[in-house]
């Protein structure tokens, strides 16, 4: 994560390394180096390594996409918090009454071996 140098006052952070030397040629915003391209944080324009625009950006669409991602992230966090509360309740009720384990059943091979042993000892005596 790459954050703002004014951290306590500003909580801005990005996942990819920012390029501070060159602003976006379309909107003047921050450029971020991604694995295959360079992308503008403000308008979403994509640039090549020589800082030539390969795909124009749309600031309004980029802001809407960022807001939708933030809403989805908040919904997942709320769902996860709710799931933790219900799992804690299940654990509490589960530990109240210990259950007895059923005795292990003998396998068919063990039963047939005992039958053979019983018939051979019965025939001799």
Our count of domains comes out at: 2
Number of helices: 2
**Multimerization state:** single chain
Helix-residue proportion: 40-55%
Return the structural class: alpha+beta
Which descriptor suits the 3D outline? Answer: elongated
Number of strands: 7
Task: Report the radius of gyration as a whole number of Å.
Answer: 33 Å
Instruction: Please give the alpha-carbon distance between the first and last residues.
Output: 84 Å
What is the strand content? 5-15%
Poorly predicted regions are none
Largest sheet entry: 5 strands, antiparallel
Describe the strand arrangement of the main beta sheet, using strand numbers.
3-4-5-6-7
Spell out the helices and strands N to C.
EEEEEEEHH
Mean pLDDT, as a whole number?
77
List the helices and strands and how they pair.
Blueprint: E1 2-3, E2 13-14, E3 18-19, E4 31-33, E5 38-40, E6 46-47, E7 53-55, H1 59-94, H2 108-124
Antiparallel strand pairs: 1-2, 3-4, 4-5, 5-6, 6-7
What this model shows, in words?
This protein has 2 domains: 1-57, no CATH class; 59-92. The chain is elongated, with a radius of gyration of 33 Å. The protein has 125 residues and is α+β, with helices and mostly antiparallel strands. It has a 5-stranded antiparallel beta sheet with strand order 3-4-5-6-7, with no helix packed on it. Strands 1-2 form a two-stranded antiparallel sheet. It contains 2 helices and 7 strands, in the order E-E-E-E-E-E-E-H-H.
């Amino acid at each position: 994560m790459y954050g703002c140098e004014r951290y306590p006052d500003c909580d801005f952070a990005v996942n990819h390394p920012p390029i501070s030397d060159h602003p976006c040629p379309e909107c003047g915003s921050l450029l971020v180096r991604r694995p295959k391209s360079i992308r503008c944080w403000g308008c979403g324009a994509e640039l090549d390594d020589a800082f030539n625009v390969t795909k124009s950006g749309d600031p309004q669409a980029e802001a809407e996409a960022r807001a939708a991602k933030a809403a989805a992230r908040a919904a997942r966090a709320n769902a996860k918090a709710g799931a933790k509360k219900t799992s804690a309740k299940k654990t509490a009720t589960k530990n109240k009454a210990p259950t007895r384990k059923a005795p292990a059943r003998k396998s068919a091979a063990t039963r047939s071996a005992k039958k053979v042993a019983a018939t051979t000892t019965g025939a001799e005596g």
